Amino acid sequence: MTAIMRRELLAYFSSPIGYIYLAVYYVFSGFYFFAGTLYANTTDLSYVFGNMFTIVLFLIPILTMRLFSEDNKHKTDQALLTAPINLSALVMGKFLAGAVVFLLGLSITLVYGVIVAVFAPPNWALIWGNFVALLLLGMALIAIGMFISSMTENQVIAAVGAFAVALGLLLFDSLQGLFSSPFWSKVVSGLSFFNRYNDFTVGIFDFSSIVFFLSVSAIFIFLTIRVLEKRRWG
Description:
The chain is mostly helical. It is built from 12 helices and no strands.
């Protein structure tokens, strides 16, 4: 698993993908930090984290589009599938590589906390809560994008598929108003990524939301393993 993770991290930064992802992440988060915190003369970083929800939804496909599709295209997946390596370790290695690059971008928010601490004590509990929420969201989206990447050899298709999922997650909340039944309305609310994430941005550290994002990650990691198993023995 460690060897796979190192291989993927090297691939991210031996090509423009890793640098482009981090540059775009830093530009958007920096803009929201300036507009919502520095310019507003506050130590509250909730504006940054709240707006990064949408940015992360559409940035994650950049990280995940090549995780498996590139190997599928160049047929190097056959070497990986026939190698004496556990498929779970293979998938987790790629997943963790994406998560590490995501974490490199996310860590800039802690720097913002240090910057505002120069002027006034920030609410570190709220900052760490938001940090954890964005990390959990990123992990869930990476797992989904990785699953999509495992089903195609075309990086563009993998990226478009992940973008479509991101758009679907944005529009998902609008379904809540279509149901008159309180039960189905509650179901939609419970499955909403935005509602789960937004609780953290306002200081609500809900354990069920942590379980939700971790469960989504685990489900799509498992599905990716199943796709590879089918390819290995198919």
